[in-house]
Amino acid sequence: MMRQAGRYMQAYRTLAEKHPSFRERSETVDLIVEISLQPWQAFHPDGVIIFSDILTPLPAIGIDFEIDENKGPIIDQTIREEAALSSLRKIDLNKLHFVGDSLKILRKEVGAGAAVLGFVGAPWTLATYVVEGKTTRTYQVIKSMCHQAPKVLEKLLNHLSHEIAEYMIYQIDHGAQCVQIFDSWGGQLTPEQWDVWSKPYIQQAVRIVKKRKPDVPLVLYINGNGGLLERMQETGVDVIGLDWTVDMADARRRLDKLVGIQGNVDPALLFAPLPAIFKEIHNVVKKAGRHRHILNLGHGVLVGTPEESVAHFFDTARSLSYDSLFVNEMPQVVANT
């Protein structure tokens, strides 16, 4: 479940009171492991996601950032012109030892009880922070660069693509059994713009990873991806993550049956009565069919979500079977992460 460790859990809030810095929580091995395991211990999902952030590798590439607990990430050293590209470095994986060490511990801790999952930000999404310097609603600066400084943006995206690929391989080498790529802000581009400014750089990263780790599944998620599904499968990933605005049956028709689908329960559904949660999960699974579906939310767990509802989500997932959903058809496993 995306963002299954976080502020909706009392255990996390208690820990955060003692360790108020997000970067401390996400860059200290003991805290990473403890937070990552909190939902696994509480709800027993099929996947344990390392507690981290898509911006975590940036300092190892030469781009430092801070997290303002109210405003979000802040990057003073923005890259908007040719001269600023000189600050970029090949990724120093030694500076990310806390990620590797945590993954090793998680892999040992959960054993065969769950898959250990890593994640990264897609080049375009990372570039929005590096260029804008903060979270934005308009993406005006980086979109302007597409027209006014395209060569600079191309060089930035190309660099991020190669280094993020190395970071994905690093996660896999240290215990991640699946890696999800978050192009969180790819949906801010038109489909044609996404073809130019995001897709090629995801494709490049996927090719690098698949050449060295061909058997490790890769997932691609974009928030607001209804108009991009066919394009997403062209990146070479194994699984397409759907947000909740896409009809699951329509997505299944549009995508190749060899491509897995993840999702796509509305996170806000977890505020509904428990019977409504059960009904919608049943509906999503049935629409997805019996081909390569990973039951998940269509976005991260929302702050304030009742823990009882999260537990019910996982209990419901475990209770379903294709025998009951598809009479006279051979079932496949439905997983939840």
Strand percentage lies at: 5-15%
- The number of strands is 10
The dominant shape is globular
Q: Would you tell me the overall average pLDDT?
A: 95
Give a written overview of the molecule.
One of its GO terms (biological process) is chlorophyll biosynthetic process. The chain is of the alpha/beta class. The protein is built from 14 helices and ten strands. Helix 3 runs parallel beside helix 4, helix 5 packs across helix 7 and helix 7 runs parallel beside helix 9. The termini are close together.
Short description:
With 337 residues, this protein is of the alpha/beta class. The protein has helices spanning 10-18, 22-27, 29-43, 97-110, 123-132, 140-148, 150-173, 191-197, 199-212, 229-233, 248-254, 274-288, 307-319, 322-325, and strands at residues 47-49, 66-68, 72-74, 115-121, 178-182, 218-221, 239-241, 260-265, 293-297, 335-336.
